[in-house]
Amino acid sequence: MRVLIANDDGLNAVGIQVLTQRLAQEYDVLVVAPDRDRSGASNSLTLTRPLQPIKVAENRYRVDGTPTDCVHLALSGMVDGEVDIVVSGINHGANLGDDVIYSGTVAAAMEARHLGRPAFAVSLVGGEHFDTAAQVMVRLLKNTSYLTLPAGIVLNVNVPDVPYEQIKGIQVTRLGYRHKAQAPMPAQHPKGIPSFWVGALSEPHDVSEGTDFCAIKDGYVSITPIHSDMTCYEAASPLDRWTSTLLL
């Protein structure tokens, strides 16, 4: 099986290095990743300039673009050969709840699904035990032959930041959500231009049983199936009744 690995923390990040080293023991691995940290890039594509991928080693490329750019190029003819599955990560930090809206890690996996490949986004909820997340991915990939999912589904995996033997198991979860983000923080600019840091993420709000937040809190790996269809089907009927009263 040939595995494409991408991320949003950049080619030199610890997470992708650990994941690459571990998966290369089992699979034919291709790595295409941003040349620097592109966290929070979401699903953005670079459309205002050409991209310049650089081969840094055999089957290893860095791209001066976003995580979505990396996967798009890799699966659209930049490199020879087919890819069977895509793994995005290991992200430095959680991608839980509404984090997935902004996450370049999740976006890279979503791009893979748009292009017809099964895809995982994997994140370590912390910054120490990347080995644990890599071992979890090995276990998941070894059992993909038993997995049947509808088209367009991405599996968002979050792993507790603990030694592997302390993982309590795996739970299939739904996305929780956070309180609104903290207020922007003023920043000093040498020329006096008004400047701000975007406010930090808030604490979780929905941590009820069944959410990804709850699974992580209890020491379990969280796997949430997500997709790009953002239609709110529950709103269709009341919206239809409302629009039927309008005269245009």
Question: What does this entry look like structurally?
Answer:
With 248 residues, the protein is an alpha/beta fold. The protein has a single domain (2-243), classed as Survival protein SurE-like phosphatase/nucleotidase (Stationary-phase Survival Protein Sure Homolog, Chain: A, 3-Layer(aba) Sandwich), CATH 3.40.1210.10. The chain contains 6 helices and 13 strands. The strands form 3 sheets. It has a 9-stranded mixed β-sheet with strand order 3-4-2-1-5-6-7-13-8. Strands 9-12 form a two-stranded antiparallel ribbon. Strands 10-11 form a two-stranded antiparallel ribbon. A hairpin with a 2-residue loop joins strand 3 (54-57) and strand 4 (60-63). The longest helix is centred in the middle third of the chain and has 13 residues, at 130-142. It is globular and about 60 Å long. The mean pLDDT is 93.
In short:
By secondary structure, the protein is of the alpha/beta class. The chain has helices at residues 14-23, 67-75, 104-114, 130-142, 212-217, 236-243; strands at 2-6, 28-34, 54-57, 60-63, 85-92, 119-125, 154-160, 170-172, 177-178, 185-187, 195-197, 204-206, 221-226.
- Determine Rg (CA atoms, Å): 19 Å
Number of domains: 1
Quick one: biggest sheet?
A: 9 strands, mixed
What string gives the helices and strands in order? EHEEEHEHEHEEEEEEHEH
Name the features.
248 residues, two-stranded antiparallel sheet, 9-stranded mixed β-sheet, alpha/beta, Stationary-phase Survival Protein Sure Homolog, Chain: A
